[in-house]
Amino acid sequence: MADVSKISLNTATVKAQWSLRECIEGCARHGIRGIAPWRDVLHAMGIDEAARAIKDNGLRVTGLCRGGMFPATTAAVRKKALDDNYRAVDEALALGAECLILVVGGMPEGSKDIAGARSQVRDGIGQLLDYSRKHAMPLAIEPLHPMYAADRACVNTMSHANDLCDELGPGLGIAVDVYHVWWDPALEREIRRAGRDRLLAFHVCDWLVPTRDLLLDRGMMGDGIIDIPLIRTWMEREGYQGCYEVEIFSSEDWWKRDPDEVLNIVNARVASAV
Ligand code: ZN
Questions:
Q1: What pLDDT was estimated at residue 25?
Q2: Which of 119, 135, 188, 219 has the most CB atoms less than 10 A away?
Q3: Which of 39, 26, 37 has the alpha carbon at shortest distance from 60?
Q4: How far is the CA of 105 from the centre of ligand 1 (A)?
């Protein structure tokens, strides 16, 4: 059974309706004990103000979304991306976040060299680790579904993320988002390979059939075809004790609903479908 005291709200789930302050207050109202803000809503509220409100409401921060986006055509642009990643680490520290989520980036504009993009990702994470390790902020690579390889993330499997963790060493782990990895025949094996130390976050939503939009048509847990309890069991068998972070991008459905209704349903669905 899923432990309903471990729900975390990723702010993207009510992105169209609520500011970060409203998300924090909404979590408190609905008995949700974790939150994972995106940096745009964090910046809109102000980092100090957000850190205070999160603390006052006793919420844990299960991750800050997001750093990454390492590949670029020129060294100057890569340096700019890296500087922004250092700031993201600082923000994660200010919030007391459990990890900084990395969406690593896709192909630089005009490029057909995915191997090159992947080596830029490796180098970028390596440089960021020099900084994040000093401050003890874990970095969590989020492998994204291969349909995003060109424009969002060219790390698309748990296996690739584990390889990067092997190569780059401590301070680096993985965010397992069921939406991105449910299809992978090696998923169980790669979760086992990651083990407790690397399993830094667990994101849940569902895969709808048909999916009408590659980015903005994620489903509520229980409405699609992902066996979420099975994947949760694999995570917890390795010792994962973190939250289930609910992250639903849904421009035509959940973003159009009353956010209090959304949170009521989130609570019910974690109990029945996670
Ligand atoms: Zn995610």
A1: 98
A2: 219
A3: 37
A4: 14
- Extract the tokens encoding 40: 């745009």
Contact 157, 195 (CB under 8 A): no
Residue 31 DSSP SS3: coil
Report CA-CA distances (Å) from 47 to 12, 54, 131, 158, 189. Answer: 18, 10, 20, 32, 39
Note the pTM of the prediction, 2 decimals. 0.98
Cα(165) to ligand 1 centroid in Å equals 18
CA of 142 to the centre of ligand 1 (A): 7
CA of 12 to the centre of ligand 1 (A): 10
The Å distance, Cα 134 to ligand 1 centre, comes to: 25
- Amino acid of residue 33: R
Count of CB atoms situated within 10 Å of the CB of 171: 19
Taken as a whole, the chain contains a residue count of 274
Nearest CA-CA partner of 101 in 149, 60, 139, 47: 139
What is the set of domains in the chain, with CATH numbers?
A: 4-273 (3.20.20.150)
Q: Where are the beta strands (DSSP E) in the chain?
A: 7-10, 34-36, 60-61, 64-68, 100-103, 139-141, 172-177, 199-204, 244-246
